[in-house]
Design a protein that fits this description.
single chain, 2 domains, 217 residues, 42% helix, Rossmann fold, 9 helices, alpha/beta, five-stranded parallel β-sheet, three-stranded mixed β-sheet
Length: 217
């Protein structure tokens, strides 16, 4: 409930969303983001690879501090693809800069496929890794999104069931009237299915569509 109400943003806490690819981490993160927007918080979404590229370019153009200040003003930062691949070169140092700037100043949602215990190896440099993790893990709510089936597979399954249901609904012309007789067969996943149809217009008058209900137990 505290997360739904956005109290974690006011208290400058973070959220770590863990789970396999396709399990809905980013959907949940965006739901938190939308809730924060409705409470007039500044929210920004960015992939970690894109953020690191932006910081590298800013450092080369001499505007690194300006970019860091911009991210510091964001109330809720959603970081997708967090440590999906090991960091290279100065990326660990740049990442520490932005984590340090936002520490106790804003909240961050980290969407990761890996448990925080494996982040140390992804960051690489031991000293920087300790500093980054110390500013994240101890101030964070951790949520594990588990599931044997990915969200995309579940959506495909729902679509298939919807198509099967449509095939089970037969529309038969009703003799002598401009309306239809609906034969309804219950969906196999449910005990029963109740259907009420709106009538078709016939000579400017509306009546009710007769319908037949059959249940396969």
């Amino acid at each position: 409930m505290r997360l739904a109400h956005g109290n974690y943003i006011e208290e400058h806490h973070n959220i770590i969303l863990k789970g396999a690819s396709g399990n809905g981490k980013i959907y949940l993160a965006c739901a938190f983001g939308i809730a924060a927007c409705r409470q007039f918080y500044k929210v920004k979404y960015v992939r970690l690879p894109d953020l690191l590229d932006e910081l590298a370019v800013a450092r080369g153009e001499g505007i690194f501090r300006k970019v860091i200040k911009q991210y510091k003003k964001v109330n809720l930062l959603i970081l997708d693809e967090w440590l999906l691949t090991p960091l290279r070169g100065n990326e660990a140092r740049d990442l520490l800069e932005i984590i340090e700037a936002r520490h106790r100043n804003g909240s961050t949602i980290f969407c990761s496929r890996f448990d925080p215990r494996g982040w140390h190896e992804k960051i690489g440099e031991e000293t920087l890794a300790d500093a980054i993790l110390d500013r994240i893990v101890h101030d964070s709510y951790s949520i594990l999104i588990d599931g044997k089936v990915s969200m995309s597979q579940e959506v495909d399954q729902l679509r298939r069931e919807k198509m099967e249901l449509k095939y089970e609904l037969g529309i038969i012309p009703f003799p002598g009237r401009g309306i239809a007789l609906m034969r309804l067969v219950a969906h196999p996943c449910h005990r029963w299915l109740y259907f009420m149809a709106q009538v078709a217009q016939n000579d400017g008058r509306a009546g009710s569509i007769p319908w037949q209900y059959s249940h396969n137990s």
